[in-house]
Amino acid sequence: MNLIKSIKYFVKKLLFYFNWKIEKIYIQNEPITEPPAEIELRILKNCKGIFHLGAHRGGEAPIYEWFGKKAIWIEANPKIFLDLCINIKKYKNQKSYCRLITDQVDKKYSFNISNNDSASSSIFEFGKLSVGKENLWPQKKPLKFIDSIKLSSTTIDFFVIENKININEYNHWVIDLQGAELLALKGAIKSLNKCQSILIEVSDGEVYKKSPNYKEIIEFLELHNFKLQNQINSKHCNIMFEKN
After folding, report:
1. Residue 238 sits in a domain of what CATH number?
2. In degrees rounded to 5, what are phi and psi of residue 97?
3. Residue whose C-alpha is closest to residue 231's, from 213, 218, 216, 244
4. Angle 60-64-67 (CA atoms, 0-180°, nearest 5)?
5. Other residues' Cβ atoms within 10 Å of the Cβ of residue 218
6. Alpha-carbon distance 26 to 216, whole Å?
7. Which residue, 107, 80, 119, is CA-closest to 207?
């Protein structure tokens, strides 16, 4: 099986080099992402560009292109990073990077790969709201980690300097890091000065063990002059902040 996966990856990478791809069609039984709220549409319309942390396969790329925005995508999982590159290659103003973002530079982490197309992969273990009797998604296939790889981390501030990015041109941030959102923010003190709005995934309870509660994220961002624009409406959702 590993040999077959290696061959598939090689063929996929070779085709990508020549601007070709073979794509498996996945039939989705439910929306991949939530429909954007009115405030999100306004921000996408008015922002300069998007800094998207936790890219997965770049499902929002056509939306960013439709709004005529440039975007930087960051995805930690090297196992799906090539798919991200393939999916955004046709958009000339979108770039992708394979990095694990936390509050530390060059710290080694065990990065756990999840069984739901890697969408819930994390440096944290699943908490009681992800598995067990209090699972928030009992109708879905039970979540579990099927692999773990070692990754070295970086911070947003170091990433911006290292890659010579004018972060002022990417003033709307989307942060979906499966429990590591607050760590990413703590490593972005300088870059946050250029950010005008943030859409961030938060939890009210233990979706991931030892990950921060939404109140900690709100408190941190308020200290950096961001104001919450909507309220948490479930145990696990996205909330929007804008700079005062």
Report:
1. 3.40.50.150
2. -140, 140
3. 218
4. 140
5. 18
6. 37
7. 119
Average pLDDT, integer, range 173-191: 98
The answer to whether position 141 is within a domain reads no
| Helix 2-17 with 78-88: angle, nearest 10 deg | 30
Global confidence as pTM: 0.90
The count of domains in the chain is 1
101 is a domain residue = yes
With the CA atoms of 38, 160, 148 and 120 taken in that order, what torsion angle do they form, in degrees rounded to the nearest 10?
0
Among the listed residues 77, 73, 81, the one whose alpha carbon sits nearest the alpha carbon of residue 52? 73
CB 111 within 8 A of CB 126: no
What element of type H or E holds 181? helix 181-186
Instruction: Give the residue numbers spanning the domain of 212.
Output: 38-108+153-243
Side by side, which strands form the sheet with 49-53? 94-98, 70-75, 49-53, 172-175, 197-203, 236-243, 226-228
Report CA 24 to chain centroid distance, whole Å. Answer: 22
Q: Do the Cβ atoms of 197 and 47 come closer than 8 Å?
A: yes
23-43 tens-digit pLDDT: 666 555 655 556 678 899 999
pLDDT of residue 232: 84
> Would you give the distance in Å from CA 149 to the centre of its chain?
18
Residue 34 pLDDT = 64
Residue 214 lies in a domain: yes
- Residue 122 is classified by DSSP as B
Tell me whether residue 137 is in a domain.
Answer: no
User: Any idea which residue has 């996929």 for tokens?
Assistant: 12
Burial class (CB in 10 A: 0-12, 13-18, 19+), 108: exposed
Q: What are phi and psi of 111, to 5 degrees?
A: -100, 115
